[in-house]
Design goal:
Its cofactor is [4Fe-4S] cluster. One of its GO terms (molecular function) is catalytic activity. This protein has 15 helices and nine strands. Helix content is 38%, strand content 12%. The protein is an alpha/beta fold. Helix 3 packs parallel to helix 4. 47% of the residues are buried. The N and C termini lie far apart (43 Å).
Length: 399
């Protein structure tokens, strides 16, 4: 099992309690962004466009812990920005553990190896390292050479010290299925607990706009990648969500499943869309017009049409598992997980139309930021004081 039994039991007990109480809009994972500042400028990121006075803001440990208590989700994903830059990150992690929450600490790992001494291995803490494929693909995605090797070294060190480590991989239309499978092999060899996958969300202000996936392309790509999945691969997702990525199950988004709290407050409606902010979690749940979002809702938001990311749909898959037919879908998905991939001619043609992988051609070479660990630590310490392609988009009917 890619997660501790205690975590699985905690989540199962929590979901059953929500189901029995008849509560529809319940959170599964709280997305905590204690800051937006980062030490990278990834080509598909939508979090780096804020002006400097916003990037200097921090959520205090006191407010972060109060928000987690208010929300009540059994799991917290600490994201950003780069959380290791936050001056109170140790207090935030220790406080969440005391609350009994399971933490996925999202990090690009450039500062992780030296920061590990701040933390203690705990079954409630997992470092979720951003790894977007093998060396060439990852360094290109984050726009800086050398980042893959730094992150890989940090992963090995964390595993050797007894920490739980997962990876978080975002795939775009440039993904080469065979190289992604090689990446899975390498992550298993270094001892990560499980891998998380997601198609990239088309952030409007991401530096690069021609890399995002449509729904049809997403399904074809993940079918190709996950077909004949090896027994040694471990994923930190439900079998139902993996089946959703391959197009075997159709799920709608449950944006309330992963509510976001950041320097502005509670973000409406989800981690990916910022349509306003409120002060309390109750206000977020009670005042957000949830029916406006997702592909099936009234007045469907255009930004939702091609979204299949895990922060919108994993909660749907988990919730579905706790229903009679959902359990059947889960068991079927688990049984079919390692089946041979069969793509239609249209899917094969769509994949073939995407930009071909051409080896190392990282945009990192244009970066003026230091790439070494020592230089990077010094730079961050000083800063604290201050082409057209087919995407396979599917039409949606509107009532």
């Amino acid at each position: 099992m890619p997660v501790p039994v205690s975590q699985a039991a905690t989540v199962a007990s929590y979901v059953l309690k929500q189901k029995l109480s008849g509560r529809k809009h319940y959170p599964l994972v709280m997305m905590l962004e204690p800051l937006f500042r980062c030490n990278l400028a990834c080509e598909g990121c939508g979090k780096i466009q804020f002006p400097d006075h916003i990037l200097k803001k921090r959520v205090s440990a006191e407010k972060a812990l109060a928000a987690a208590e208010e929300c009540g989700a059994p799991m917290v994903s600490i994201a950003g920005g780069e959380p290791l830059i936050h001056p109170e990150i140790q207090e935030i992690v220790e406080g969440l553990i005391k609350q009994g929450r399971y933490i996925y600490f999202c990090t690009n790992a450039l500062l992780l190896e030296r920061a590990l001494k701040k933390f203690k291995p705990n079954k409630q803490l997992s470092f979720s390292v951003h790894m977007d494929g093998l060396k060439e693909e990852h360094d290109q995605s984050v726009c800086r050479d050398g980042t893959y090797e730094i992150a890989l070294s940090a992963i090995r060190k964390a595993v050797d010290m007894g920490f739980r480590v997962t990876t978080n991989t975002t795939l775009f239309n440039t993904a080469n299925p065979e190289r992604v499978r090689q990446f899975f092999d390498e992550m298993m060899e270094v001892g990560v607990e499980g891998m998380m996958l997601s198609p990239g969300y088309a952030y409007e202000k991401a530096p690069k706009q021609d890399i995002f996936l449509g729904r049809t392309l997403t399904k074809a790509l993940f079918k190709k990648i996950l077909g004949d999945a090896k027994k040694g691969w471990r994923f930190n997702h439900s079998a139902s969500f993996m089946a959703f990525l391959r197009g075997d199950i159709n799920y709608e988004c449950t944006p309330w499943g992963n509510p976001t709290y950041n320097v502005f407050g509670w973000q409406k409606p989800c981690y990916l869309l910022a349509d306003g902010y409120v002060k309390t979690f109750k206000e977020l749940i009670d005042t957000t017009e949830w029916e406006k979002y997702g592909r099936a809702g009234k007045g469907t938001d255009e930004r939702c049409l091609n979204c299949m990311v895990h922060c919108g749909h994993e909660a749907t898959a988990v919730n579905d598992t706790f229903s009679p037919m959902g359990l059947v879908r889960f068991l079927k998905a688990a049984g079919n997980f390692r089946r041979t991939a069969v793509l239609s001619a249209e899917e094969e043609e769509l994949l073939a139309s995407q930009p071909a992988y051409e080896g190392a051609h990282s945009c990192a070479s244009s970066s003026s930021e230091p790439s070494g660990r020592d230089e990077l630590m010094e730079a961050m310490a000083s800063s604290r004081g201050q082409s057209e392609v087919k995407t396979g988009e599917e039409p949606i009917s509107r009532n």
